[in-house]
Known about the structure:
Layout lengths: L2 E5 L6 H14 L4 E5 L13 H8 L3 E5 L4 E5 L9 H7 L5 E5 L8 E5 L15 E6 L9 E3 L3 H12 L2
Parallel strand pairs: 1-5, 1-6, 2-5, 6-7, 7-8
Antiparallel strand pairs: 3-4
Amino acid sequence: MRVYGVTGWKNAGKTGLMERLVTEITGRGFTVSTVKHAHHSFDVDHPGKDSHRHRVAGASEVILASRNRVAHMSELRGAQEPVLADLLARLAPVDLVLIEGYKRDSHPKVEAFRAETGNPLIAADDPTIRAVASDVPLELDRPVFDLNDTIAVADFILKEVGL
């Protein structure tokens, strides 16, 4: 499976870039799935709903299905967070999986960078970052794209993964 990441510090523009890349790449006829890492507790379920009640009652996994979508929720209940490779193995085959976050994993990535956040570039010390999408010009030993030039970033990623 072809994978490519978008990484960066908080408020660097990762999610916006991911959203635009999914739109651009699927618009070219490719199938895309995404994996997003969250550093905090989150819930996609709502108290009072049947699926939430199943989880609260102790179910390890709950699948919620309709004719429009399927949601598969797994409760870790103290177990280790799954590694990225295990999550990727759960996905149905697609042309490309875009991964948001997982900055410490070894897959190739584009770093989203906004100068106003005051954070340092991750790319300076990370060879898995193959390019940077920035809101300011940068002098680096790898390609630098305008953060809003989605077409150029998509072209780069697709070339990198051979699509």
